[in-house]
Amino acid sequence: MTQAAESSLEAGREAIARYAWHEGFELLVRADTEGDELSPADLERLGEAGWWTGRLDACIAARERAFASYREDGNARRAAIVAMALAKDYFAKGSSSIGAGWISRAERLLAEEPECLEHGWLQRLRAVLAHEGAGDYEKALEHGRQALELGTKFGDRELQAVALQDQGRALVAIGNVDEGMALIDEATVGAVSGELRPYETGVIYCNTITTCKELADYRRAGDWTEAAKRWCDRQSIAGFPGMCRVYRASVMLVQGDWPGAEVEARRACDELREFNVSYAAEAFYELGEIRLRAGDLSAAEKAFKQAHELGRDPQPGLALLRLAEGKTQSACSCIDRALADESRDLYRARLLPAHVEIAVAAGDLEKAGGATEELEAIAEKYGSDALRATAGSARARLALGQGDTGGAVRASREALRRWQSIDAPYETAELRMLLASAYVADNDQDSAVLELEAARAAFERLGAVAGTRHA
């Protein structure tokens, strides 16, 4: 190795050690270019720096070289760790078959090894695949428990933290919310206190926010999103900020900051296209939701189609867009198909409110009634205020469709109080519109006018053109 390459290599190692990812990446690339091939450990450092700076292709190339070097050196355990990292990289690119192939390689490499820490990381990866891929939460819970046992046995605090959180996520998904959130809170202590490596810290932030968002706990999701953003800024990293922007856009949309939400969503689209396909797809979907609420149906449809191209089901947004266009039968077909393909409770809870609204518009009150009851059962099971508010809104809409004006008024007022407590201005304004319709049906014109005026003012503040037009 030349003197220049050796100098770059040492400087690159030092930069990586202090998490100066951009500097470390450039220095290690220079060392690799100027001298002999890097060691497998240095190639791992180069891959990690590429990952943190959003250069996924460079990350994969370095890790594949590291894997080959470890295999050549007979280091099966370290090769298995790199294989697992490559599996996650290929899943992020949307190349699931290649990702599965790397998992098989890791399993084969560890099959003849005595029980070791690397088996724990393999169990952890299986927990993630069971949870996020198959939606098999019981299996995810079992893999998480095995990972935690091995992490504890071998004294690896990173594995202990993420495995503990994996168990918490699985318990929440099953419906044991209090127990699950307690484990998630325990796992976040290490992330907040700076005890963990950057990757595991980012994973814990990301998964905590995802769980809060799935529970529709927007306030808590917002708090954790801001904490994650501050952490990303301190780390000067590229990939995780884009992923955090997706969550920020979602939370800001609910809180009523639509211009800010759109900025975050568009930046996430740009940052994540070549880094994580599923998050990029989610960013486009959020952009579609923003434009739909603003009444820009053409832009909303374009964003929903881009989300679909990247693998994200564009429902319920596209179904509600069709309803706004007056294409009720098309809306019914969209939402029915989405529900037929989804069995997970919290994911169905995202679709069911649109199902009720569309079914009522189509005059299918029996279908709307079934969807309302299912949504109420999910809200009772998981217990978040936003889920209960959503279920109450559905009940009010159904009651109004059935001609039960008294029931519609009661359900609307209760849901309105919940949405106000959550600080969700658009949902609050929509409920005021629904309540106004119930008042009109009950011959209470004065109360109807009050609600309509309040709704109009809220829609104008938000920039909801369609809502303002109907108020």
Shape: elongated
Q: How many separate helices?
A: 25
User: How many β-strand runs?
Assistant: 0
Question: What's the CATH architecture of the domain at 396-471?
Answer: Alpha Horseshoe
Q: Runs with pLDDT <50, length 5+?
A: none
Instruction: Report the top-level CATH class of the domain at 396-471.
Output: Mainly Alpha
Q: Over all CA atoms, what is the radius of gyration?
A: 25 Å
What number is the mean pLDDT? 93
Structural class: mainly alpha
Give the terminus-to-terminus CA distance.
73 Å
Looking at CATH, which topology of the domain at 396-471 would you report? Serine Threonine Protein Phosphatase 5, Tetratricopeptide repeat
Largest beta-sheet details: none
Helix content: over 70%
SSE run: HHHHHHHHHHHHHHHHHHHHHHHHH
Percentage of residues in DSSP E strands: under 5%
Description:
The chain is mostly helical and 471 residues long. Among the domains are: 315-378; 396-471, Serine Threonine Protein Phosphatase 5, Tetratricopeptide repeat. The protein is built from 25 helices and no strands. The chain has helices spanning 3-17, 21-34, 40-52, 56-73, 76-93, 96-111, 117-134, 137-153, 157-174, 177-193, 198-214, 218-235, 239-255, 258-272, 277-293, 297-309, 317-324, 328-340, 345-361, 365-382, 385-401, 405-422, 425-441, 445-462, 465-470. The termini are far apart.
